[in-house]
Amino acid sequence: MNLFFAKKKEKTTPKDAIINLRETLTMLEKRELHIQGKIDHELKIARTNATSNRRVALLALKRKKLYDNQLEKMSGTRMTIEAQAMSIEAANVNLETMKAMERGAEAMKHIHKDLNIDKVDQTMEDIREQMDLANEVSDAISQPQLFGAEMDEDELEAELEELEQEELDKQLLNSGRVPVSLPKLPPQTVAARSPTAQPLSQPQPQRNTRPVVEHVDEDDELAELRESMGMAAM
């Protein structure tokens, strides 16, 4: 019974195999340079003794021929090793690529383990609902609120006209002249007396006006005020 077990052969990795082949190629290159040197040396001997000693020259050519054959075989070996190294490199690249793709597939399986199309649709529906709600809230906030205060447009217009009349009276008082109150005209009459309005086909009824102040300067001032307000002079 054999008590000694043979040592298990270690598995060669692609990287180790490529390194070993590259080292072999380096050794063959050095060997080729050495043989090429011997070929050059034998050729030199043959040329030197070609005319003086034909026997020595012939032996030198024979040795050169042997070295040539050896160099040719070594070149073929180099080509084979280089092709093998390239094949191993390509196979190793394919192997690493497949490993990376397998890891990617495992990662995708892990991601999609708790994810399906129903959950995606539900999530997108929730997002749409929340976006619609956000838009509604934004619209509601942006609406102006008076908080129970009711506004009468006619009343505001009347108040504005009083303020305008007060301002005109102040301007007249500052100028040293008697203030003149302008009569309120209906909108239709103001539009009819506007410089851009077309002449009416029918005569308009005469409106009631306050007594005109007897001073000529006040009439001129009244005409200027009417003109600034877009009304034709009476």
Automatic annotation (TrEMBL):
<comment type="similarity">
    <text>Belongs to the SNF7 family.</text>
</comment>
<dbReference type="GO" id="GO:0006900">
    <property type="term" value="P:vesicle budding from membrane"/>
</dbReference>
<protein>
    <recommendedName>
        <fullName>Vacuolar-sorting protein SNF7</fullName>
    </recommendedName>
</protein>
<dbReference type="InterPro" id="IPR005024">
    <property type="entry name" value="Snf7_fam"/>
</dbReference>
<feature type="region of interest" description="Disordered">
    <location>
        <begin position="174"/>
        <end position="217"/>
    </location>
</feature>
<dbReference type="GO" id="GO:0000815">
    <property type="term" value="C:ESCRT III complex"/>
</dbReference>
<dbReference type="GO" id="GO:0005771">
    <property type="term" value="C:multivesicular body"/>
</dbReference>
<dbReference type="GO" id="GO:0032511">
    <property type="term" value="P:late endosome to vacuole transport via multivesicular body sorting pathway"/>
</dbReference>
<feature type="coiled-coil region">
    <location>
        <begin position="117"/>
        <end position="173"/>
    </location>
</feature>
<keyword id="KW-0967">Endosome</keyword>
<feature type="compositionally biased region" description="Polar residues">
    <location>
        <begin position="195"/>
        <end position="209"/>
    </location>
</feature>
<keyword id="KW-0175">Coiled coil</keyword>
<dbReference type="Pfam" id="PF03357">
    <property type="entry name" value="Snf7"/>
</dbReference>
<dbReference type="GO" id="GO:0009898">
    <property type="term" value="C:cytoplasmic side of plasma membrane"/>
</dbReference>
